[in-house]
Amino acid sequence: MKVAVIGTGYVGITTGVTLAYVGHHVTCVDVNPAKLASLKAGKAPIYEPGLEELLSLAAERLAFTDSYAEAVPEADVIFIAVGTPPLPDGNPDLQYLQAAAAGIGEHIGEGFTVVVNKSTVPIGSGNWVDALIHEAFATRQGKLFQEHLAVASNPEFLREGSAIHDSLYPDRMVVGAEDQRALEVLYTLYRPILEQTFTPPSFIPRPEGLQAVPFIATDLTSAELIKYSANAFLALKISFINEIAALAERVGADVTQIAKGIGLDARIGTRFLQAGIGWGGSCFGKDTAALIATAQDYGLSMPIVAAAREVNYRQRERIVEKLLAELKILKGRTIGLLGLAFKPNTDDLRDAPALDIAHRLIERGVRVRVHDPVAMEKARREHPHLALHYCETPEEVAEEADALVLVTEWAMYRELPWEEMARRMRRAVLVDGRNFLDRAQMAALGFRYVGIGLNP
Ligand code: NAD
Ligand code: UGA
């Protein structure tokens, strides 16, 4: 099939490249010239494992352009994957969605086209996009008949850092539409993934036992609400375990054992029960705020979701409190942060706890040294005013530091020469914000090891 993808961010480029890989012809549209230049040169504009390899494998079925006129008229399916960043009141900023819908309306062909909201968008956005497309079409050439267009919602559940894996092997595919034809077209489009008929790339093998992916067909509004509900639920699972972690510390228990002890109950599940610094990233914060804002529009409150947010953002301050408890005085100290990205295997810094913690420490007069294997250049570019001392190696971060905080659990941090790290530090205090390192080993190397929710 012929596919257009509007927006080549984390979601758009992953969607485009995986659909091309399984056999479709995909044209990706973006307004960012630097991204387009990079993609045209076969280079991934973001750090995402496997993306560049797949770009190369699918190259002959992929095109990149800034022109809606090139991508839209011929497309059978058009995905909207533009950003929906948060506004100060919690609602998402829909200006990019609006521009994308208008661009589609101006150029849509007169064959049957399915326009798919893949961006995470508020309830009612499907209807709004439909209206915007009709409006933009009308200014060009009169009435666009309903038989030519169907709008669907196909929320995206990929995780950054494993985006390609999650797109080729999703747990489920949710598609919401009022028009049965849209469901049929999208089933056909996704058939290779739903029925797992494609040959897996050698570097991202198919999970053992996966034969078919459930296709969940819903109405438009339910699909929109499924996305927000999924993210809110995952977010509150993490906040729940972080709340338990605080109590575990006080009573002398170990939250990692508690997570296992409750998680092996199949009704609870072990995943997303890792206590730590809490969630960051572009979506949990934004989507929980948007869910609460939507509820308010309908005269409802969402106390559970609101509490999950409160617990999450308090967790960052708790890191500062732990440092204060160890060092007694923060002003004038040097503290090293290992990891800037909001999670490993990505360079994404949106709502990254490391930046927030760095900011809090700098405000208290701390000199902050940082290292991240991939996100430092982006941090310099996107946060030029944050007074961080960037270090090329983790060893350099340790130099004369009064404490280290492990913020992002990059695999490489497990392999560091920790003995040497301790020697370089003024005080060998290690706050492991992800309970990632071997506590006994660190203690044996002379570290004062402080985890999250562990028996002190
Ligand atoms: P992003 O900011 O990385 O990318 C958005 C892209 O859209 C940018 O490249 C931008 O230049 C482009 N764009 C903006 N306006 C445009 C226009 N008018 N025409 C063409 N392109 C335009 O965003 P993202 O992280 O990929 O997220 C996109 C959407 O998907 C959001 O709604 C987000 O909530 C949702 N989502 C994101 C993730 C994730 O892990 N990042 C996962 C699931 C869902
Ligand atoms: C999350 C969801 O997992 C995806 O399903 C969803 O598509 C995406 O948001 C989105 O809508 O953008 P992502 O933010 O990429 O994906 O990464 P996650 O693996 O979910 O991690 C989110 C944050 O939670 C990270 O900061 C991570 O460190 C933290 N986390 C995760 C924990 O603190 N504990 C855990 O047990 C799991």
UniProtKB/TrEMBL annotation:
GO terms for molecular function: NAD binding; UDP-glucose 6-dehydrogenase activity. InterPro entries: 6-PGluconate_DH-like_C_sf, NAD(P)-bd_dom_sf, UDP-Glc/GDP-Man, UDP-Glc/GDP-Man_DH_C, UDP-Glc/GDP-Man_DH_C_sf, UDP-Glc/GDP-Man_DH_dimer, UDP-Glc/GDP-Man_DH_N, UDPglc_DH_bac. SUPFAM superfamilies: 6-phosphogluconate dehydrogenase C-terminal domain-like, NAD(P)-binding Rossmann-fold domains, UDP-glucose/GDP-mannose dehydrogenase C-terminal domain. Substrate binds at F157, L158, R159, E160, K227, F272, L273, Q274, A275, G276, G280, K343. It holds the Pfam family UDPG_MGDP_dh_N. Residues 336-439 form the UDP-glucose/GDP-mannose dehydrogenase C-terminal domain. Keywords: NAD, Oxidoreductase. GO terms for biological process: polysaccharide biosynthetic process; UDP-glucuronate biosynthetic process. NAD(+) binds at D30, K35, T84, T120, E160, K286, R350. The active site is at C283. Signal peptide: none annotated. It comes from the Bacteria. Its EC number is 1.1.1.22. Belongs to the UDP-glucose/GDP-mannose dehydrogenase family. This is UDP-glucose 6-dehydrogenase. It comes from Allomeiothermus silvanus (strain ATCC 700542 / DSM 9946 / NBRC 106475 / NCIMB 13440 / VI-R2).
